Each structure stands twice: as structure tokens, then as C-alpha cells.
Amino acid sequence: MTTLPKPSTLLPKGLQIQQINHLTLFKFTDELSDRLQTLLDKKKADTLSSEEILELEAISELDEIFSYINAVIAARVSERF
């Protein structure tokens, strides 16, 4: 049985913090971005293995978390200006 990897296991190699204007944002590293794109391409072609499906779910969850955090940061900064 294959289990869903915890999104937090992707953080050491997959997270970067980037300063954009007045914002400090969380982004994927190029390596994780490339892996996400590869998995999405394989999903579109319907060639994902069961392990890759779970990996895609974990990366997608991490992407949702980063997007939410970045949106909150952007909203708070825009309130100050």
C-alpha cells in the first residue's frame, strides 16, 4: 500500500523565500516547480503511476498552502499602503 507523503517532507528541497517589492513570499524551488510540471504533464497524458498520483497530491497541497499564505501576506501589506 502506498501512502500519501506529507507535504512538509517537500520543504527542505522545495521551498524558497523570495523578496518581491515589499513582499516576502514563499515559492517553490526550480526543482520542485519542474517536478510539479512533469507530474501535471503526465496527468494530462494519463500516464501517472500510483506513487506519482500521491506525490502530485502532496505537492498540490503545499502549493495551496503557499498560495494562501502569500495572499494573506499581500493583503496585509496592501492594507498598510
From TrEMBL:
<protein>
    <submittedName>
        <fullName>Uncharacterized protein</fullName>
    </submittedName>
</protein>
